[in-house]
Amino acid sequence: LEAQGLSSAPRLAEIVDVETGWEAAVEVVLGAWLQSVVVKAGSDHGRALDALENAALDLVEDSAGKISPKKGSLAEKVRAPDAVMNWMNGVTIVKSLGAAWEQRSGLDEGQSLITPEGEWVGTGWVRVARGEAGRDSMLARAKAIEALEAEVGQRSAEAEKLAQAVGKGQAEMDTLAAQVQEQQAAVTALHRRRSEVDGRLESRRSGLKLVTERQTALDEEGKQLRQGLEDDERTVREARGRLEQRVGRMAGLKEARDGLESQRSELMSRRETARKALGSARDQRHDLALKAESRRASLDSLRQSLERMDTQLSQLQQRYLNLSEQMARADQPEERHRAEMDGLLARRVETEGRLGEARARLQGLENDYREKDAQRQRAIRASDEIREDLERARLRQQEVQLNARNLQTQVEELGGDVATLAETLSEEADVEAWSAELDTLQIKIARLEPVNLAAIQEFEEEQKRKEYLDSQNDDLCSALTTLENAIAKIDRKTRTRFKETFERVNKGVQELFPRLFGGGHAYLELTGEDLLTTGVGIMAQPPGKRVSSLHLLSGGEKALTAVAFVFAIFRLNPAPFCLLDEVDAPLDDANVVRFSTMVREMSESVQFIVVTHNKITMEMARQLSGVTMREPGVSRLVQVDIEEAAALAAS
Fold first, then answer.
1. Higher-confidence position of 27 and 589
2. Fewer CB in a 10 Å sphere around the end CB: N or C, the chain?
3. Is pLDDT above 80 for 247?
4. Alpha-carbon torsion, ordered 259, 260, 265, 269, to 10 deg
């Protein structure tokens, strides 16, 4: 076969396609030909057959399409090479062996009958394969193997899809869990941010309220300012008109200035005359002062003389009195004393005369001094009046010059020309009326003060700031709306998934609890209405008990209830493995059996690692691992495969 390149050629059993249910019949008909080698049509294998010495070889050409299946023949149930189809056309199919016996007598030469069970009947012969021989059908096994391979492939694909789905679901769950954590952190941060934003927003609102109030005040102030500006503009227009009228009167002022110039010349001459008179008066005053000083000195001398005379008179009077007393006491002659008294009287008369003359002279000097002093005062007053007139004239001249310069400056600032305006002045122009009107305008302008000249600019800046704050407020409101929508979406999805998970776990608890307890019922219930914050309670009632709380259950009942809950979760979302640490410790043997049975069933999808000291639980395990200490202080790990140990014990 290798020399002819037939070692890899297919066998007939591999390429024959048989309708389901007719495998046994086809295999009975073909028999050993099923192991024949299929070769290409037209191939020359004569030399190979000649070289074959000690062996058997069946060859079938792979030619198809030339022979059509006969109606009612076994060829209708087969798709195979033409040689096989030719054989099958000679075999008629019947429903049962009894029908074959009835039709056997009418068979032509080379024809036969066969049933679906492989009961083959011909003229003078019959072949039946039942029991083990029937079950060992090669085509059936090939069909079964093919079906199993297809099923294995399908199951492998399904398992791969399930693994991918599980991995994808796990990844989605991990992603969702991470997203939930991120969203929760984001929600917390956003709540904190929202609080800060609320505070800032409240502050901004307060500021905005102040800005709005300030804006209202500024609007009112701006309105008043605009009204004031309009009034000022109207006033300026009126003042400009009046100014034009006043400028018209400047010609008259010019004439008045010329008159003032002439008056000034006259006043200058008068001032010169007054200055000369003042100089003369000063000289006279000086002379009078000198004379008055000499008169004052003479007067002082006379006063001193008068005082001396008064003193002498007093002394003489005192002496006269003394003498009179002495005359009264003394014994001197009266004549001598009288003569002395007469002499003293004469001297007194003389002294009084001289004193009277001195007083008269003093009175004359005082009168003369008062007259000269009055003249001096009159001269001083005249000089002061002349000086005041000169000062008033000078001030008037300066005022006129200053007013003229101010008017000229104002006219130039307003874009006018003094000479041109002077030509347009009316003869009825009145400076006093203009001055009074100008004072009135100044009073009106002063009433408008204080005017904030930067109010319009401040208003524009505050308006821009308000627009900026409004945009920020809109952005914050939009962000808060987006965040609230995201939170609401997450909450809805969380509620939906929690509700679905709760219902599935609750269904699992209701199914597993009676199996673990051998009866009774249990269910889960929510402790609150809000699915995001509610808790989950377990309500369990073992068979034959009325229990309202888990705290009233025994230790074993609590353990089985917990196992039912955990297994319900594992059925919903299996993990790679589950570790049970002496869960069966508080259970009796009956409950341990039910527990072990449940673990055995669930081990098809979850790998269990059980830590136990219970022999019944150990019997359930497939692999045992234990720690022993044959030698003191030396621990050893012992592992036993239960199936291998059972096989070894059986042998």
1. 589
2. C
3. no
4. 120
Per-residue b/e over 32-54, b at no fewer than 16 CB within 10 Å?
ebbebbbbeeeeebeebeeeeee
CB-neighbour burial class of residue 62 (10 A; exposed 0-12, middle 13-18, buried 19+): middle
Asked whether 637 and 627 are in contact (CB, 8 A), the reply is yes
Angle between helices 455-517 and 555-572 (to 10 degrees): 120
Angle, CA of 463, 464 and 466, to the nearest 5°: 65
Residue with tokens 């790990």: 637
Single-letter amino acid code for the residue at 390: L
| Contact status, residue 68 vs residue 87, Cβ threshold 8 Å | no
Distance, in Å, from the CA atom of 236 to the CA atom of 56, rounded to the nearest integer, reads 139
Confidence of residue 531 (pLDDT cuts 50, 70, 90): confident
The residues near 554 (Cβ < 8 Å, ≥ 6 apart) are 586
Concatenated DSSP letters of 230-252: HHHHHHHHHHHHHHHHHHHTHHH
Compute CA distances 43 → 39, 40, 57, 88, 558, whole Å: 7, 6, 15, 24, 79
Chain segment 325-342, per-residue pLDDT in tens: 665 655 455 556 566 666
Q: Torsions phi, psi of 43, nearest 5? A: -75, 145
C-alpha pair distances (Å), 3 with each of 7, 10, 42, 58, 420? 8, 16, 18, 16, 140
CA terminus-to-terminus distance, the chain: 43
Q: Does the CA dihedral 255-257-263-269 come out positive or negative?
A: negative
pLDDT (tens digit, 9 = 90+) per residue, 278-298? 667 666 666 666 666 666 666
CA 535 to chain CA centroid, Å, is 33
DSSP β-ladder status, 78-79 and 59-62: unpaired
Phi, psi of 459, rounded to the nearest 5 degrees:
-60, -45
C-alpha dihedral sign at 342, 343, 345, 349: positive
Return the half-sphere exposure (C-beta side, CA atoms, 13 A cut-off) of residue 192: 5
Q: Supply the DSSP symbol for 123.
A: T
State how far the Cα of 642 lies from the Cα of 651, in Å rounded to an integer. Answer: 14
Peptide bond into 450 cis (omega under 30): yes
Helices (H), 63-137: 82-89, 97-103, 132-135
Beta bridge partners of 611: 581
Give CA–CA dist 458/469, Å, rounded.
16
Give the type of residue at 161.
Answer: K
Per residue in 109-126, is it b (16+ CB within 10 Å) or e — as a string?
eebbbbbbbbbbbbeeee
**pLDDT of 506 strictly over 90:** yes
Give the pTM: 0.34
Q: In which residue are the tokens 């400056």 written?
A: 409
CA-nearest of 118, 88, 114, 105 to 27 is: 118
What are the φ/ψ torsions at residue 639 (nearest 5 degrees)? -120, 135
CB distance 34 to 41 below 8 Å: no
Q: What is the CA radius of gyration of the chain?
A: 75
Mention every residue, 6+ apart, whose C-beta is less than 8 A from residue 412: 418
Cα–Cα dist 125/114, whole Å: 12
